[in-house]
Amino acid sequence: MITHIYVLAHIMKRKIVLALILLLLFCLVYLNISSRKIEGVWLNTNYISSASGNILPGQSILKLKNHKSISYSHYNNPSGNGYFFFFKNSIWIWPKFYEVYAIKKASLVYQDSLILEIHKGEKNIFKKVHDSLQNNSDYGFSFKNKAFEFQTENTSGKLYFNQELFFLKSNSSSLEWHMDGWETFKVDNFNFIVLANGSPLIVKKNNSVPLLYQFNNGNSLGEIKLKETSLDSTEFRNIQEQVEVFEKRRKNK
C-alpha cells in the first residue's frame, strides 16, 4: 500500500513538473511572438511634460530587436543597452533606460505610438521608422561643409553643415541662422542626422542629393527636398560670427 502511494505521488510529481515546464515554454514562446510586434527602429519625436505643459522635440532613437534594446542620442551612441520583453501593453527594458514603460495606442495625434514614461507626467513619444526608408548597407553621404536649399510642403530656406554645427535659415522668417549640434550615424540600414536639440532626421538615398524626412503630427512623414548650393559672402560671414561666439562660450565653460 505504501509503495503504491509512493508510486502515485512520484507520478503526480512528474506530471506537475512536466506541466510547469510546458507552461514555462508556452510563456516564453508567447513572449517571443508578442515582442516581435514592436521590433524595429523607433524615433523619439516629442517629449511631453504634463506638469509644465511643455511639448519639446525628442532627441533619441531606440532600436528593439531580438529582445535587445539599444538607444542612441547626440554624441552618445549608443547611450543605453539592455534587454526587453513586451506583453499586452507593457514593455520591460533593463538595465533601465526609462523608469516606467508602456506601449499605448493613444488616440488622435499619437495613434499607434510607443510612449515611454520617464517619471510620472513626463513622456517620450516614439514613432516607428518604416522599412521602406532603409538604404543600401554601403550607403554613406557626407553633409560636412555643404550648403543646401531646402523645400518642404510649407516652407523653404537654406541649410549649412560644418564639421560639428548645423545652421538653418527659413525664407519665411526674418530671424538669423538657427544653430545646433549635429552628427550622422546608421542604425541597421537606416541613416539619421541626429541633432543636439531637435528631433532626428531620416536620410533617404535619392540620386546624388538625398531626401530628408521628419515626423509631423500623427504618424505622417514630412519630406524635405534638398538642392546643393553655396553660401554668399554675407551668409558665410554671419555663420562665421556665430561659430566664433560658440567657440568663445565653449572655452569659457
Architecture overview:
Strands 1, 2, 3, 4, 5, 6, 7, 8 and 9 form a 9-stranded antiparallel β-sheet that branches. An 8-stranded antiparallel barrel has the order 10-11-12-13-14-15-16-17. The longest helix is centred in the first third of the chain and has 35 residues. It has 253 residues and is α+β, with helices and mostly antiparallel strands. A hairpin with a 2-residue loop joins strand 4 and strand 5. About 6% of the residues have low confidence. The termini are far apart.
- Give the CA-based shape: elongated
Residue runs with pLDDT of under 50 for 5 or more positions:
97-111
Major sheet attributes: 9 strands, antiparallel
Average predicted local confidence, pLDDT: 79
Kindly report how far apart the N and C termini lie: 86 Å
Specify Rg, calculated over alpha carbons: 25 Å
Please give the share of residues in helix: 10-25%
- Write down how many β-strands occur, each being a DSSP E stretch of 2 or more residues: 17
> Hey, roughly how much beta strand do the residues contain?
35-45%
Number of helices: 2
Q: Secondary-structure element order, as H and E?
A: HEEEEEEEEEEEEEEEEEH
Structural class by SSE content: alpha+beta
